[in-house]
Amino acid sequence: MTFREWQQLSPEHAAAEVYARLEKNLPPAQRRAVIAWLCPQDELARRFAAAPRAAPLGGVPFFAKDLFDFAGTPTFAGSTFLPEVRPVHSDGAFARALHPTGAVFAGKTHLHEFAYGITGENPHYGDCEHPRFPGRTTGGSSSGSAAAVAAGIVPLALGTDTGGSVRVPAAWCGLFGFRLTPRDALIADAVALAPTFDTAGWFTATAADLLTATATILGPFQSAPGRPLRGASLELPGLDSEVAAAFRLAAPRLAPPAAAEVATALRQGFAPALEAYHTIVAREAWEFHRGWADRYRERYDPVVWQRLNRVHALTPAQLASAQSALAGVRATWAAFFRDFDFLVLPATPTPAPTKAECTLELRSRVLALTAPASLGGLPVLTVPLSSGLTTGLQIVIRESRSPVVPWALGQTESPGRAGISHP
User: Fold this and answer.
1) Which fold has domain 1-257+342-423?
2) What's 116's DSSP letter?
3) Is there a catalytic annotation at residue 141?
4) pLDDT tens, 232-275?
5) 65 in catalytic set
6) Catalytic site residue 324?
């Protein structure tokens, strides 16, 4: 159901529909893996009744990734203990920003613990699986939010994206996704992973709904320049053959392949991004957790603990190198945007993987595609490819309200869903 279809329901019917869809579309184990907190049905109906229907998102239900604070609900961030060290007493910035839009807060979604992963695995609540392909992951860390939209429970869900946590699950679940920029107001008071890269974002099932949500939350898009928008596409290494074929078919519909000299400059400029990303995230994540990490060590996901603990092996030379690489990647992007309005990149190297395929090697392959935009601190629109098992395109832009967004969504309402074959 689209935003408009939800808005046509009565408050009681809308609340009942959320519950019915959750019951019908997710098996019990997946309900536990996806939903961190669900508004009681009577209260949800009251929220629908109170929503200003004349507002752009009036009567549109949404879930929020459990990194964002909403008054009256705890924020666990995929852990079992966070409220013990970080109690929540009031709405956070994103919750406050959504009040005047009329959107109806229906609940919170689970995630890869503390947002420190891209596979949607969580030993405390269960791994989030692709709603249409059980046994395959949604991707993470915004796993529950992506699953809720892909399963049709709600048409809008909030996520975050540090190293791809909107882009990857959007691509693997066949959704449209949008990530903003680090340190903006909507992410400033959410549970942090790495503030240099953390961004807010959201998912929808259709291009039209993503356009509505983005324009409502951010305000009007900038006017188009007095010339055609200029873009380029760039295939990066490490793609499965079927993903590469889908990218080569779909990307030129938005922008031609980058000229040889532009492609070379981008690939060389992006080369240090992956290692720098790991180093900076490890340092900043530890800063957030250091006040309680040792005391709660046994309650962390062992994989997440290992990533947090990596900070102790970092040398001053590695930290300095990462900062130098960060500056270099940003200079590469600045040079690109002097001549272009957007860059089209692959979003994932594979379709949604099975649990056995969620390896460190796959993690590196994914982050090699997503880290350049993360280091650039840039907004990214993600659009899906294929109507079965999916990957997606990253459309990297200079500013969140760029005219590229409505233009690209108009081009990709039915992206052809360039064919990745089904296994």
Assistant:
1) Amidase signature (AS) enzymes (3.90.1300)
2) -
3) yes
4) 999 999 999 999 999 999 999 999 999 999 999 999 999 999 99
5) yes
6) no
